[in-house]
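[Solved] Which block belongs to which protein?

Original post:
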Amino acid sequence: MIVSGTTAQALVPTADPSWLLRETGYELLRESTFETRFAISNGFLGVRGGLATHLGACRAIPPRTYVAGLFDTPTPDSAVPELVPAADWLQVRILLPDGPLMRCPNRSSRALTLDMRRGTLFTEARQTCNAPLDVRLRTLRLVSLDLRAIGMQLIELEIENGVSDLTLEASFGPTDFELAPERADLDLKAWRTWRSGRSLAIAAAASLQVDGTERQPTARGDLSWSWSWTASPGQVVSFQRIIAVTRHHSVDVHSGARARKELAAARTLGWQGLIARHEAAWAGRWHCSDVRVEGDPAAQAALRFAIFHLNGAVNPSDPQVSVAARALTGDDYRGHVFWDTEIFLLPFYTLTWPEAARTLLMYRFRTLDAARAKAAAMGWRGALYAWESADIGDEVTPKQTVGPDRKILDILCGSQEQHISADVAYAVWQYWRATEDETFLREAGAEIILETARFWAARAEPEADGLRHIRGIIGPDEYHEAVDDNAFTNMMARWNIERGLDVAALLQELWPETWDGLSERLGLDEPELIQWREAAQTIVTGFDPATGLFEQFAGFSALEEIDLAAYSGRSVPMDVVLGRERTQLTQVIKQADVVALLALLPEVFAGRAAETNFDHYEPRCGHGSSLSRAMHGIAAARLGRSETALQYFRQSAAIDLADTHVAISGGIHIAALGGVWLIAIFGIAGLSLRPDGLAFDPQLPEAWRSLEFRLHWRGRHLIVTIDPAARVFRVALETGSGMPVYVRGSRYLVSADEALAVPLDP
């Protein structure tokens, strides 16, 4: 039995509006946008934000549930795995004798409220027109951040007027992705994927109370219940359902046992206990990651929305999976993992939730053999990570797609967009610098960096000019394919090789036994390290000392210049406006490329080179990717252009929070949300990581009266406050020993006994 109790208090969102996202009314054309924006997730389960089926005059499409790591190929001849939607566990029908109860709800009364503080979705609707009963309907939905296998649904129906027989039916809808049924009991169903050998099991319990008295079902079936009674004015009906979902990476005839065990633990807590523990888990996450902005409510809302989805996207207990491009909120990109995770998400996790960051990097370590296999298949040594990865790390980028003109287009990213290996190494190194997690470095991180460095030393081939070139590549700017010496790729490759040498030296100095074992297993000797040094010194960078510019790739400067300002009113990307073939012959850039180097490797831009390159490439970028504006925002802030940075901040946030991007129907842009945090912390607050501590060069926009945020650094928890009005920069240690902090180039020490306050010049 689910522990009983009143649902009224639970169905009331947080009072503080700064924690709420709310939409009222119903518009069919915007429904898929709402489903994305109001999605909830815990890193294992993700549920889109649509209303439960048949609860209102919405389209009868169930809110999809996704289970992390549940991949299969849709047909026997398909080579591309997809994330498999699970069955609709929220399905409810409330019936009068002559049809559905909510056949004529007041559309203006329909409301969706996402309580980001509590990690809970609320819905509300009323029916008051031409029906036997006037009713008020309220629902609550959550996937537990404390017990990640658990989902919960509460429904409260208040009868305001009328008398009628009423029936409530709760069931599980079918999944639209074919799964093979394995088992069907009253409390459990189990399925398996046809081709990937994965098992899914869902156990469930449900109960219904009328005026606080529990009613026994009048009918039962496999994960289905039905109750019938006579409704009358003043009656309050409460329905509760708890589910437990388990995923297994092999077909298991006992796959339901764990689901039943998880459900039993949840039922012992009861729905009130589940809510309490879920909210406590969210309170813990917000304590470590909240960012507070005074003076700019829109920026505050954007940061809360971004951090909410970032915290809900990862499961620190599951190294079998990573965060997909749309997290667990939609179908776009088939649930595949890109460089987005390492470059746009890992900084947030590393500095606010290192356990989650470590887990995501362990996914890359677990898939290292697949990266080695890809490199070997293409004729190189080392590890080349998949551009698109699913659960086992194989390259799963589709070979073709249909273009805007309905023509079949070849997709070359899977073979040519190779900077992913340097991106993974970058995330590993940043994690190591921020945490000094020796166990991770010795057991996983060092091998990733060494094997990716080995790849680049092989990939950058020496030529007659005495330099090493990387030819036939795609950089972040995917408008230009098969280019030579892309500046971003080459510079990141050089950086990766240099970090490989650093890791080798570090292991030799501090952990010689680890080095001996690892170097022997990898066949890595001193002559190869000497080759790496030569490679790092001779890779072409594209830098022109005369102009101070890094040429984006060889020949880029000779391409046709396009005035993007003349196309400022466009509603589609520039490659659609100009056509794919012409775009490749122009200097139109899809997304930050050299500008991304400004954000990731600012140290390579000496003197005025940073300003020169930003000013050259910014007007050439069409921002055809949701990732682009984050890099521009960071770079602009570091140049002291805080208002420009704020503009990019708002544009990044608008991708998911405004109704200007139809692509949101396929899921949230989790990397753009990571970019919102990056612009605020690495850009506007001016954070950078030093070998001995953290450095800040704050550049707050005029509207921001103050900025406060929390960071985790080598076992310490810090609270950072930037207060331009008081002209002070403060750092307080919540936990941990004293450490150096750099503010605008000056070194200070913050102690556990007393907060640091540094005067700020205007």
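(Second protein starts here: sequence line, then its structure tokens.)
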Amino acid sequence: MLSCTVQRITIYYTTNVILHLNYLHKMKKLTTLLSLVLLFTSTVWSQQRYIDEVFDNISETQNVRFSTQVPQPKRGGGWYESIAAGVPINAKEHETSNRDLHMDIFQPFGDNNVKRPVFIVCFGGGFVIGNRKFGDIRELAIRMAKRGYVTAAIDYRLGVNMFDEGASLRGVYRAIQDGRSAVRYFRANAERLGVDPNQIFIGGHSAGAFISLQNAYLDRDVERPASTRKSSYRWGAWLVERTYNLPDQGCLDCAGDNKHVNGKANAVVSLAGGLGFLEHVEGENDVPSIMFHSKNDIIVNYDKGQPFQNFSFLIAGFDLPEAFGSNLVQNRANSVNAPNKFYSYDKRGHDLHVDGLLNSALGRKKLHSDIVPRIAQYLYDARLRPAGFGVSGATVVRLSATNTQTYTADVAKDAQVQWQVEGGKIVKQTGNQVTISWNIPGEHTLSAVPYNTNGAKGNAVKVPVLVMDNLQELKADLQMYPNPSARVLKIKLNEEDINEVKAIVYNERGQTVYHGSLQKQGAQFNLNVLKLPLGKYYIRIQNGERMLHKTFLKY
């Protein structure tokens, strides 16, 4: 946060994105266009959208205004601000001026999906310095956009009074409101921007991580710190102090535009962040969070402590509240079953996501190779992957009877299903249904893979299907008793010269649960079914090339 950013030379990096004009110039011929489309399509399907970088190029829209006329505290001046080049660590909570907030939006170039998830990224800087042009923030936004997200690097209001605990919380609360305003912007403009209003995520580093975690857990008005309501504080510069009354900062979604929309994100990402109050982590209904923190972080404590506590003795009157680091947030989340994932490191320091000290000092662009993949995988598993589902339809098919069957995947109505079959042929597919003509005897597999409207791929569901052939049937009568059976199923054939048979038992899903030979015992063959679960079963009794099929119940 402050210590690492005070040393930083703020350099505005312009990402070298391949220009649209160059791309279009290459597509001169129709054959070239078709080949590029086919190549792109095969690449997207062979890789995993939202996990892998399936897009080579991104487009960027700069200076998009998402919040208008929000009150910004004025700099307070004084000794410490003078030696810190005007960094607003002594903000005047009682004097404000209005300003607009902007973001830079990144999108995968050439993407036709109209319901994409959003990832909003917030810079670090102790709530006193920084902007959306920081190299690490832009790089994180670009890397996620190449995975198929619409992403945004945002600005938020800066200024904290580090000499009054209550007043300092107002600075953090302002930034939380701005993060929610960015969420509201995408949610309110979802159709125009081609995004899914129910899949909007926010993350950040340091102060930006505080913004994201508070978005997840400080989500009710009753949880607001008292100092964010009508309050007062003592402020002074150059030894002149007096008490000032402070206005109510308003509800969580009361600053900025689109106030009618909810600004709570659907998942959050924290890089070296923390919380002010652990009790705000409430339980399994909290949104998913993924946190990264290093034990040797000297800016935001891994466990508990004042931010910058290693340097606070240098500042007379320093009065920031304690914060709970990621380790304790994770412990609290686990104790109340709140969904979370935590990656702990030993020696990465505060800039745990940036690879190399030189990169950290001169622009913070190169990220550690594990950070983005872990973020992408968690968000995919927690929010984007289609939920588990079932497939209904016949799992035992007789070729001599009706060998054409229809199967239905129990997926969301707007999801797509990719079917694969062995031992048969797909003759029709409509929505979540498929019709298959089975033509090869044996035990086969029907598999279904769902895809959400955003292109996220779910886990395959594989259904075993038993296709029975038309071999000559045993002419002998087969008697089974008791049926239903609880312990031993007795099988009797009227052909007395048959002393041994092969028996195969299938469950209703076509899975083999027993396969073996039965020896005649007296007048019948005995099959022990004691360990079978309750339900309906199919049994094949075979003697040479002849066989019989029957059903029985286990109770």
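Accepted answer:
You had them paired correctly. Confirming on the second one: The chain has a mean pLDDT of 86.
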